[in-house]
Design brief:
DNA-binding, homodimer, globular, 6 helices, three-stranded antiparallel beta sheet, mainly alpha, Arc Repressor Mutant, subunit A
DNA sequence: TAACAATAATTAGTACAACAAATATATAAG
DNA sequence: CTTATATATTTGTTGTACTAATTATTGTTA
């Protein structure tokens, strides 16, 4: 195959990625979930393991530290999480999912799972496995 | 398969998409291409068909109009493109790839093709076809 | 212990994304 | 012709991404 014929994957990936976010965001709005899709990722990670510090959390959700700082700022304002000083290392904060945050998660999680499923209604389990494998292979090939 | 097992694709897609951009942007920097990846998309589209108006161009590269307006602003500053008033419809500009822009494209295009190929070095042609099919299916399933 | 390096988080600056609203112009309907 | 509607683009706002620089703290080593 020629090089030129490979030239559209980044476009397809980018626009599909954007549409997935748009779709989820639109549903969030319809359901009056007052968060963005990226904020959701943070809450979900904390719901699985609470009180991570920011670096761990950034690693978990694959965002960099400055971006995470701002997402945490926004979630703090909404009182869904709070920063807690770690006495043993005063450089760190642990991010704590509050009771309000936990309550919202219980309310939102099943609906988010529904929303996420929509993308797969015309695809098979094998497609899902293939997509994961292909994306991970690309990710590793472009190690930076 | 349970709903829960489908819950990571958006994360994988997002991080792979980000890495593809990061990788290309890093190479652009190394080669002293003084543009961003998104600006490249615009130039590439104009190189294939010059003098599109902004709406056509936005459609071509899958971005919305406000985003494109700002990308065009930046490309104008670099004198790679220029806005030309269309006398027949004074609402429109056609975006013209300048001589300087064309010259840069000749210089850059082969190297960008190389950079783009890197993602596929551990994958097959069938993987490429599968990825395209899966992404397009998702895109269409989430019609908004 | 003092100097140096490493780590956690933040801040600042620029770019892009999404959305809503505004402006200007063109076209259609009455 | 006038009103209404549609189209092309821009502007404003909020949120995310990346880089580099900064602050505060901790760890290492001479």
């Amino acid at each position: 195959m020629t090089k030129e014929s490979f030239n559209t994957y980044s476009y397809l990936l980018d626009r599909t990625n954007r549409r997935i976010k748009q779709f989820a965001q639109k549903k969030f709005k319809e359901e009056s979930f007052d968060i963005t899709v990226d904020q959701w990722l943070v809450l979900k990670s904390l719901n699985q393991e609470n009180d991570q510090n920011q670096s761990e959390l950034a690693e978990q959700i694959g965002k960099d530290n400055p971006t995470l700082t701002r997402i945490i700022d926004l979630l703090c304002k909404k009182e869904l999480v709070e920063r807690r000083q770690l006495p043993s290392d005063r450089r760190c904060f642990t991010i704590h999912l509050t009771d309000k945050g936990k309550q919202k998660m219980e309310e939102w999680a099943p609906k988010v799972a529904e929303i996420r499923m929509k993308a797969w209604e015309n695809l098979t389990e094998k497609d899902y496995e293939d997509l994961k494998r292909i994306l991970n292979t690309i990710y590793q090939s472009l190690e930076i």
